[in-house]
Amino acid sequence: TARAKIPTLIIEKLLPGGTMLLTDRIENYPGFPESITGPQLSQKMEQHYREFGGEILTDEVIDIEVKEKNVKLRSGNCIRGKVIVIATGGRKRKLGVEGEERLKGKGVSYCAVCDGAFFKEKMVAVVGGGFSALEEALFLTRFAKICYLIHRRDNFRAKGHLVDKVLSNQKIKPVLSSTVEKIEGTDKVENIVIRNRKDGKLYDLKVDGIFISIGQIPNTEFLKGKIEMDENGYIITDEKMETSIPGIFAVGDVRKKSLYQIITACGEGATAGFFAEKLLNHT
Ligand code: NAP
């Protein structure tokens, strides 16, 4: 939209890039055969956007009056857009077990790229069986002595090349058909209690860190009751990326869809931008 000379403003709560900033190596975004880190790709996208005159405002959207397209900000300011594109992504899901909240930042982490370096030659565990959990486990093998990969079923949700890489890594020990029941430790994580789902038995795993990677929750609370969503809070759009409210679009991880990747988010952004421009030129 910036390139189409439509005045464009991104409202960003923290740093442009979102979940991408927490990703180490991105191997499935075209044009970077040698791979690129999430922070590097975010920076390139921001630079590209600014070169076409796009602006970024650091603030948080706390409410939207959908009919009027008034966006209310944490700072108390209010902005009106002719078109709004929601790209608020998701945040990490919590496990909800005893010890998780108390030991957060003391061995309980949701981001290997952020905290992995604290676990040099230590024992760690990753919980989850999706792409993110497997990527976290592989990243942690750079530092940790052993990385247990705890998944509640007996086969991973992630498929293909990544699974082969994980299974051939000597430092990763899959712990399948198992759930974490409790995280223990006085001032930092010392032990986790595991339940084997096949025989129901409990046992201890001595670890210094546990990385929880069990999926995302869409950041859509501020839109509840205003825009059509599915039962999990993902925004429903049509093929133009337009939501149930004309002139409001949604793209990326906040949308109900089948493939959550950077490449699909970018394509959705292009689609929303294209139809936003059409809408603006016809009103
Ligand atoms: P995900 O694909 O939804 O996987 C979540 C994993 O956590 C699943 O294995 C699930 O188990 C497990 N899980 C969920 N709740 C749990 C609980 N309470 N206790 C124990 N385990 C639990 O999430 P993700 O890996 O964060 O990925 C999110 C999306 O981004 C996905 O669509 C993924 O494909 C995409 N992604 C893609 C890439 C890539 O293309 N390289 C990288 C990262 C993410 P079950 O399998 O039993 O349900």
Question: Which class best fits the helix and strand makeup?
Answer: alpha/beta
Number of strands: 19
**Uncertain stretches of 5 or more adjacent residues:** none
Q: In what range is the share of β-strand residues?
A: 25-35%
Overall geometry comes to elongated
Strand order of the largest sheet: 10-17-11-12-13
Distance between the termini: 16 Å
Largest sheet: 5 strands, parallel
SSE sequence, one letter per element: EEEHEEEEEEEHEHEHEEEEEEEH
State the helix count.
5
Q: Nearest-angstrom radius of gyration? A: 21 Å
Indicate the percent of residues in helices.
10-25%
Bound molecules: NADP nicotinamide-adenine-dinucleotide phosphate
Overall mean pLDDT stands at 96
